[in-house]
Amino acid sequence: xxxxxxxxxxxxxxxxxxxxxxxxxxxxxxxxxxxxxxxxxxxxxxxxxxxxxxxxxxxxxxxxxxxxxxxxxxxxxxxxxxxxxxxxxxxxxxxxxxxxxxxxxx
Length: 106
Known about the structure:
Blueprint: E1 55-58, E2 65-69, E3 72-75
Antiparallel strand pairs: 1-2, 2-3
């Protein structure tokens, strides 16, 4: 077991095998790659307000993703909404649109 207390800096490659716990903040300056599952039990922030980056999430089906870039959310597969849906502003739909239940358009 190795315990590191206080500020620490590593240069080069650091390989860790086995479970690793970090208490406190973990800052990564540069690219990070994770090849296993990741569970996040608190909030997730991507980018900074007014200075964020394009974010894309891929599923198991090739060509299907959820992408947010330049104030535009693009979903390249079917969308199912359970509960209320409110759209404000211009909206465009390509393909079939099915509405089940009560609908009001103002």
